[in-house]
């Protein structure tokens, strides 16, 4: 739990910055760790023991913890548009990529699947400016945005691909 909370603190400024860069909005993002239980973990496990044994799984504990995202105090899951939610998702991916790169000293491959489906043109262009150095694999079901400068493009058409 301590490491998860530390990671969230490390992600927060990176995700906030990436979100501002992607959207151009001065919105304040907050990432808040949420426990899956009240009180101490030992007490929570004891309270859930009977149910957990019946179900054959643990209903409380670090594996069930989550985090809550707000943008200017609005619940990001329910109060933001799909485009803004998508921008937060991308900001999380970009922030996580930066954390892993810093921790390992090497840049992992960044895979973004159907990344442009809910982004407007300015956000899509901003994404290209935010992409980290190194290998990035982007997929899209639509047209390739004008800001794209691909080293290699693979087109899949009715099960047949061509480079």
Could you name the CATH homologous superfamily?
P-loop containing nucleotide triphosphate hydrolases
CATH class category name: Alpha Beta
Average pLDDT taken over every residue: 91
* Gyration radius from CA atoms, angstroms: 19 Å
Order of helices and strands: HEHEEHHEHEEE
Tell me about the largest β-sheet: 3 strands, antiparallel
Percent range for β-strand residues: 15-25%
CATH-defined fold name: Rossmann fold
Low-confidence stretches: none
Question: Helix count?
Answer: 5
Number of strands: 7
Q: Strand arrangement, largest sheet? A: 1-2-3
Oligomer: single chain
* Number of spatially distinct domains: 1
What is the structure about, briefly put?
The chain is an alpha+beta fold and 163 residues long. It has helices at 2-23, 41-55, 76-79, 82-104, 121-130, and strands at 29-34, 66-71, 74-75, 110-112, 136-138, 155-157, 160-162.
What does this structure look like?
The chain is built from 5 helices and 7 strands. The chain has 163 residues and is an alpha+beta fold. The chain has a single domain, classed as P-loop containing nucleotide triphosphate hydrolases (Rossmann fold, 3-Layer(aba) Sandwich). Helix 1 packs across helix 4 and helix 1 packs across helix 5. The chain has a 3-stranded antiparallel beta sheet with strand order 1-2-3. The model has no long low-confidence stretch (mean pLDDT 91). The relative contact order is 0.13.
């Amino acid at each position: 739990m301590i490491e998860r909370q530390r990671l969230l603190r490390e992600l927060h400024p990176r995700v906030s910055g990436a979100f501002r860069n992607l959207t151009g909005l001065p919105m304040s993002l907050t990432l808040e760790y949420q426990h899956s239980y009240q009180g101490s973990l030992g007490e929570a496990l004891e309270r859930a023991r009977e149910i957990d044994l019946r179900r054959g799984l643990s209903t409380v504990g670090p594996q069930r913890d989550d985090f809550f995202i707000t943008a200017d105090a609005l619940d990001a899951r329910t109060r933001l548009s799909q485009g803004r939610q998508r921008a937060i998702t991308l900001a999380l991916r970009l922030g996580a990529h930066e954390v892993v790169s810093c921790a390992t000293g090497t840049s992992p491959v960044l895979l973004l699947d159907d990344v442009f489906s809910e982004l407007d043109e300015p956000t899509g262009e901003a994404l290209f400016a935010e992409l980290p150095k190194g290998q990035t694999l982007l997929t899209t079901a639509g047209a390739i945005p004008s800001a794209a400068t691909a080293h290699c493009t693979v087109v899949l058409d009715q099960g047949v691909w061509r480079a």
